[in-house]
Design a protein that fits this description.
Helix content is 26%, strand content 33%. The protein has 176 residues and is α+β, with helices and mostly antiparallel strands. The protein is globular and about 40 Å long. The structure holds coenzyme A.
């Protein structure tokens, strides 16, 4: 499955993506609000090998998309729609972008397309996402893509020894 936006192609992963999946972990800003793998290359190799073999959706009912800019095949980030038990018609999204490509609205564009894919093509009724409340870039992307804040779960995450708060966002069918 390949999805298009005005500037991006969201496509299935390929084995050639492994180095580009590992690369963002080398940037301190990338890991500011998320746990980074201790061995990024090994982890990327294992993950990409599995999802390439399983295809879309994978064995966990996750739709994984590599993000590329127009016809440049290099992976700049990724976005996932997890559906779990299809009859419940709930989805969860998660995403990441290489820091070289931040601040250009790419993730807002990708997220809008994934929300439409989930709510229209897959006929989900709700798609939710969470982020560290301090990750302003991430929840700004969610708001720009049409998700609404449903609440804040206080002190529910531990990151490098600090307790943090989580913002919960969702988009509902017919409400984008
Ligand atoms: C989350 C992520 C995808 C957003 O990337 P992006 O699309 O480049 O987002 P931007 O940097 O353009 O930020 C979006 C907006 O939030 C604003 N913003 C970002 N950080 C901010 C901050 N600390 N305070 C205030 N505003 C902030 C930006 O200025 C931008 O608004 P603008 O276009 O008006 O300038 C990217 O930061 C990322 O991949 N982070 C690492 C992985 C991660 O955290 N994933 C999400 C896990 S929930």
């Amino acid at each position: 499955m390949e999805l298009r936006t005005p500037r991006l192609i969201l496509r299935p992963f390929r084995m050639e993506d492994i180095p580009d999946v590992a690369a963002p972990s080398a940037h301190p800003a990338f890991g500011q609000y998320i746990e980074l793998p201790s061995q990024p290359m090994e982890r990327a190799e294992k993950w990409v090998t599995r999802i390439v073999a399983e295809r879309q959706p994978d064995s966990k009912s996750d739709w994984h998309f590599a993000i590329q800019v127009e016809d440049d095949p290099r992976l700049i980030g990724w976005i996932r729609l997890g559906i779990g038990e299809a009859k419940l018609r709930q989805g969860e999204v998660g995403y990441a972008l290489h820091p070289d490509f931040w601040g250009r609205g790419f993730m807002t564009e990708a997220l809008k397309r994934i929300l439409a894919f989930g709510l229209e093509d897959r006929r989900l009724v709700r798609i939710w996402a969470t982020t560290n409340l301090l990750n302003v870039g991430s929840w700004t992307v969610m708001e720009r893509a049409g998700m609404q804040r449903e609440g804040v779960m206080r002190r529910d995450r531990l990151l490098r020894g600090e307790w943090g708060d989580t913002a919960l966002y969702a988009a509902l069918s017919g409400n984008l």
